[in-house]
Amino acid sequence: MLRRALPEVLAGHDSLQRTVRWVHVVDVPDPDELLRGGELVLSTGLGPGPTEAGQRRFIASLCEQDAAGLLIEIGYSYKLELPRALISEARRRGLPLIATHRPTRFVDITEAIHAALLDRGLALLRRVQQAGERLTALVLARAEVGELLAELARTLHNPVVLENLAGQPLSFATWEAGERELLEAHLECRRARRSGDLAGPGWLAVEVSAGGHPWGQLTALELDSPLRAEERAVLERGAEAVALSMLGDQHGEHLRERARGTFLAELMQGRVSEADAARRAQALDFASGRGPLLAGALGWRSARWSELAATPADALATLLPALRAISRQRPLLLGAGGDALLLVARLGEREPTAQQLDALADELRAPLRRRGFGEEDLTLVFAGTERRWIAVGRRLERAVAATQVARASAPVAWRDARRATLIDLLYALRASPELLAFTREQLEPLLDERDPRRRELLRTLEVLLASGGHKAHAARALHLTRQSLYLRLQRIQQLLDADLEDPDTRLALHLALRALRLTEALTPDERR
Questions:
Q1: Fewer CB within 10 Å: C terminus or N terminus of the chain?
Q2: Model-wide pTM > 0.85
Q3: Sign of CA dihedral 512, 518, 522, 527
């Protein structure tokens, strides 16, 4: 309808982005208290009138009532053009002033715009309702908070961030822009906003409450598409869903622990870039610094995890609160990663010494000992340091593997996985048919579980090889006389048809025994 009227913008070009809430015809000289704000005012010119003073007063009144703009039809009061005073006053005050050069019924214009506004409002209501239904279904299905945020991002076509009261991001979901753009935009927003602000250039937020108390806020960032103020209703539905989800989790710290675990797991899987890793670590309260980053892991050795939870992973999660206090004393990230707790620490600006690693191990083990879990129950591994986050991810992978390997060796305060060992090589080859065939070929005559004497001979051989072939040391370890040991060794040589004095034979048997013990220590899933 407006296009048919041949509209021309004469003033307020910089204010054309204003939102039109309604359309209203005003043709009285004194329009004070006739508007509520946001109206596009239509006039034939009777309202501004023929005098310069009346025209300026009319424009001033519209601006004071926060009108969106003024449209005047040329040909009724003003035959050829709008008065210069009217135009100059509108320009001075930044009010959009539009002249139409072709006669058009105002009722057609108001009907068209009101219909568009109503349709837009109904569309938003439908959108809010549909988003609410999808989010409610996710909450009932016990979906993760990340899934709720992903649904919100799909609805808003923009990324969303869940923050605590300090403005720190706990979880987020992207749309089209990547994590780097999201984290940079969130950092800018966090720096610019003041306490209590829920909107600003390029962002929109709503409060999230838990148990009737403020907990944080949910922020949408305008990165991928325009973010309109009306979409706050969608964001509010998202905040309600997040609050319900947190009620199921009982407290927000669970979300922070989950965020740390997700970050460390994704780092280990190589799914995080160097720049994004540094930003995410800082957002998770890991202080930035110049020192090397130590990678490590904590995993179960014994089956005592069943005293805490239904699975080893859930049992480790119950120990996280006890370990959390350590991160307040030094830069330390702890998070669940499958059947292991992943950790990244910074012990200074130089490579950590053995004494520093011992001290960190004591700090980590102290709360575990108070819960009754010692070295025989939990393996602590340090896998070395790196200065780049991507390389730390590879170290974390080695640390997790080392926690599983450690079950085949004696318990220690902490296992050194900075360099690969023989047992690490065997673990990497654990599913190799060639290794399994080699082990059986070397030891098969001693592997009859039904014969206790064969098991005793296997134990004797293992102690001898662990003693470096020294028979006196082996006899003392087995509490045997030398003559009894010699008789056992003679029987072993007969069964294996092997010379135990030959260095290559001892090496092959030792390798086979280490592979056997490793396989016995692993679960069926780990052997695959």
A1: C
A2: no
A3: negative
CATH class of the domain whose range is 430-527: mainly alpha
Distances (CA, A) of 125 to 23, 134, 135: 21, 14, 15
Looking at the chain, how many residues does it have?
528
Q: From 132, 124, 153, 114, select the one nearest 20 (Cα to Cα).
A: 114
d(CA 81, CA 433): 93
Distance CA 210, CA 245 (A): 10
Fold of 130-251: Beta-Lactamase (3.30.450)
Using DSSP's 3-state secondary structure scheme, residue 214 falls into strand
Burial class (CB in 10 A: 0-12, 13-18, 19+), 207: middle
Could you give the CA distance from residue 42 to residue 525 in angstroms, rounded to a whole number? 76
Helix H or strand E encompassing 262: helix 253-268
Neighbouring CB atoms inside 10 A of 497's CB total 7
Domain ranges of the chain: 7-104, 130-251, 270-419, 430-527
Three-state DSSP at 440 gives helix
Contact 184, 191 (CB under 8 A): no
Number of C-beta neighbours around residue 387 at 10 A:
10
Contact at 8 Å (CB) between 255 and 216? no
Cα 387 off chain centre by:
22
- The matching CATH number, chosen from 3.40.1390.20, 3.10.290.10, 3.40.50.280, 3.40.50.720, for 7-104 is 3.40.1390.20
